[in-house]
Amino acid sequence: MKTRNSLLIGIVIGLVLFGFFEYLELDQTYGGIIGALIVGTLIGKIIGKDSEKYAFFSIFTYNLIGWILVFLLTSDGKIALQYGGIALSALVGFLLIMVFFYSIIGSFGAFVASNLSRNKEDEGL
């Protein structure tokens, strides 16, 4: 139950951060890295041990949802979908690579956060 709630919280927080960075017109690379680190750290602290795979899944999910919404709801996304073809394939391929990159960064953040919290618990003994 704790894991499922953590994944849902991670996805919702990630979508809020994604929308916030999109609203601020922050570069997607920096916004994605910052969002992945925040969500990964949060999941790592909540779940603890073996939280990397859950952080990866959560970050991957909210990035896919966010980019699909960007493509469907913005004029630039509609133009890209309208032209289609090789350009759209290259854009989708690039976005998938970036989503994997963000997910790996977030998983690393979850790993570090879970190890730091575990070390603090061990010191308290």
Automatic annotation (TrEMBL):
<protein>
    <recommendedName>
        <fullName>DUF5518 domain-containing protein</fullName>
    </recommendedName>
</protein>
<feature type="transmembrane region" description="Helical">
    <location>
        <begin position="86"/>
        <end position="113"/>
    </location>
</feature>
<feature type="transmembrane region" description="Helical">
    <location>
        <begin position="7"/>
        <end position="24"/>
    </location>
</feature>
<keyword id="KW-0812">Transmembrane</keyword>
<keyword id="KW-1133">Transmembrane helix</keyword>
<feature type="transmembrane region" description="Helical">
    <location>
        <begin position="30"/>
        <end position="47"/>
    </location>
</feature>
<feature type="transmembrane region" description="Helical">
    <location>
        <begin position="54"/>
        <end position="74"/>
    </location>
</feature>
<keyword id="KW-0472">Membrane</keyword>
